[in-house]
Amino acid sequence: MDDFFVHETAVVDAGVHIGTGTKVWHFSHIMSHCTVGVDCVIGQNVFLGASVKIGSGVKIQNNVSVYSGVEIEDDVFLGPSMVFTNVNAPRSFIEQKNYSKTLVKKGASIGANATIVCGNTIGAYAFIGAGAVVTSEVPDYAFIYGVPARLKGWVSKAGSRLYFEDSSTAFCDKTGEKYELRDGAVFLVTS
Taking Cα atoms as reference points, which of 109, 115, 169 lies closest to residue 140? Predict the structure, then answer.
């Protein structure tokens, strides 16, 4: 007996590994040789391209396509209808199978309708606002939004805004964790 759930309308190709407790909902398609971790939620009409790796605890909302070349680490949230690209200069008359790698690190959240241009890394616990167009690397704990997306501040692991206005330290208002801002990067000091 399977220890995961796949809705009867979903298509799961051969050679796919799905972890314990994961749910795959209506009209989704998981292509061959994908790995999906434990306790994930794959929403309606989600597409996972061949050999994609999805970590554990990932939530992929409705109408998201994760193409070959994209890797998703643990505890990532992908908002409804957000988009990954996988080729930098697409042409319909040129077949391009050498996809640029995109990495979404642990705990990152990507808002609804955001676009992630391929070849970039989304840092751990970063927060990408709805509708953003990400065209460059995103640091850990960054809070970015806009078209093109720009750094607007910092967030904690829990998703609270961090304010470093008069100091190089800030505290999460939800957990009390201490963070430091050094040379344009944020680091968790205590947890």
Answer: 109
34-54 burial code (b ≥16 CB/10 A, e <16): bbbbbbbbbbbbbbbbeebbb
* CA-to-CA separations, 170 to 94, 144, 145, 190, in angstroms, rounded: 50, 18, 21, 11
**pTM, entire model:** 0.95
DSSP 8-class letter at 138: B
DSSP bridge partners of 54: 36, 72
Instruction: Give pLDDT tens digits for 127-174.
Output: 999 999 999 999 999 999 999 999 999 999 999 999 997 889 999 999
CA distance 126 to 53: 19
Q: Please, what are the domains in the chain?
A: 5-161 (2.160.10.10)
Q: What is the sign of the dihedral through the CA atoms of 165, 171, 173 and 174?
A: positive
Six-digit token string for 16: 């796919």
The bridge status of strand 109-110 relative to strand 127-128 is: parallel
